[in-house]
Amino acid sequence: MLIRAATYRLHVFDWSQKGFGAIKRYNQVYNLLKKPEHPPPLGSMKLALLSLLVAFVLQCVQARFRPWGWNHHHYRPILINPSAQPDLPSAQQASNSAASAGLNLTNIQGDVLIGMRKITETFFFFKITKIRTFKSQLGSTILPMITSTDDMLSVTTQPTTALNVAFSQRGLTALGVRDNLGDSLFANGQLSGASDLGDKTSQWVPQFSASNIDGVFLLASDSIENVNILLFQLQASLQGSISEVYRVQGQARPGDQQGHEHFGFMDGISNPAVTGFSTPHPGQTVVPPGIILLGEDGDSKQRPSWARDGSFLVFRQLQQRVPEFNSFLLNNAPSQPNMTLQQNADLLGARMMGRWKSGAPIDLAPLADDPVLAADPQRNNNFDYTHPNFDINTDQSHCPFSAHIRKTNPRADQSAISNQIIRAGIPYGPEVTSDETASGTSSSTPSLERGLAFVSYQSSISSGFAFIQQSWANNPSFHICE
């Protein structure tokens, strides 16, 4: 479990500069999340081996000793299940798939393969101030509460609040871990790769540019109250051995907007299917587990044996200026006949994103939304930008080359198996207020900031997030690059 941290102001969509700064700010954290196969003695100084216990040890410890008795299974789901997103496998389905692929789901932290499904989630970034105390409490008290992938697949096994943890290279070094994890972007820290991503470090959020983040706790539940209770207990149990650097509180949007990000678009539809975990839907990219998990089939790097089933985590905080985005769409709407101004504005947004707000892909529904298509995972991902009697190298009548989903998942445009990631982010901040809607301007009040806490998992940052951002998303010649 590792992290790499930074905060950026950059544009994830190549069209955002035209959107009056609708996309404003990122925070980035690189992590490796890992549950080691064999627990070392609690007195071990090599915390990477202590950082997460293997799940069967976890279950045995939980059965005998729960540091906080209230964090039991409470039989209420802590995950959302939008119809547009591919269903998670049942616990039995996942167990069968994992057995056939030799994958151990109890050895993988719960957030890595689940995707964008949390009801509420807090990212608590911390600095270790008392190393010996932290290591002792992490091994004896915190690690028994770590939630595995296996735990997350059934309401009957989900805890009241799920807990995962990750460490930065700085954090691992402070804890005496010297192993080479085979990822230079992680090892060298966020400052070294900022310019390659087009970032200006002078515009980073100060807490991240200071480079003093040692780790991050990820806490997810069905309510913020439950998350805060566990976080309070977590801090108390660590006996002053950490200090808070920064936190982001995410929450799924309410009502029929659950699963949609703040611009209004359904998210998380096109995560790849991982062999040994999920059954692919039509059109869904299938990747070997080693594209996401260290040490598994498909991971080409040499890793320490304890790092198996870990994954590098990239975190980016994206502030979204929703009123400005909506105004931009209205002010620049096309003039398709027999369509209202709002319908034309929605069309522009769909062509920018590559999907309608419902999640229906414009490659299959180029001029009008199709909510029925959007809600059908058997169809809503079954496209690759090719069409009979159309040349994929020139055809933009279905989906523009610059559409967000095309630039970040090119499908038939370019081979991209090794460049796949699992996205597991969550919206943060409140809904747009009536005053903001009326003025067309986002409030400057900090408590009204909203956006997306972007999270991706991959076994190689350079092949995953960094490649997608640098070679595709930020590349104006993306469609013709090799």
UniProtKB/TrEMBL annotation:
TM stretches of this protein: none
Q: Does the keyword Signal apply?
A: yes
| Top-level taxon | Eukaryota
Identify a single GO molecular function assigned to this protein: metal ion binding
Task: Give all residue intervals belonging to the DyP dimeric alpha+beta barrel domain.
Answer: 107-254
Residue ranges of every copy of the Dyp-type peroxidase C-terminal domain listed in the record: 263-472
Keyword tags: Heme, Iron, Metal-binding, Oxidoreductase, Peroxidase, Signal
| InterPro entries, alphabetized | Dimeric_a/b-barrel, DyP_N, Dyp_perox_C, Dyp_peroxidase
Q: Name one GO cellular component term.
A: cytosol
Hydrolase keyword on record: no
Q: Which cofactor does it need?
A: heme b
Family according to the record: Belongs to the DyP-type peroxidase family.
Q: Which NCBIfam families match?
A: Dyp_perox_fam
What is the protein's given name? Peroxidase
Q: What organism is the protein native to?
A: Collybiopsis confluens
Query: What's the source species' lineage?
Result: Eukaryota, Fungi, Dikarya, Basidiomycota, Agaricomycotina
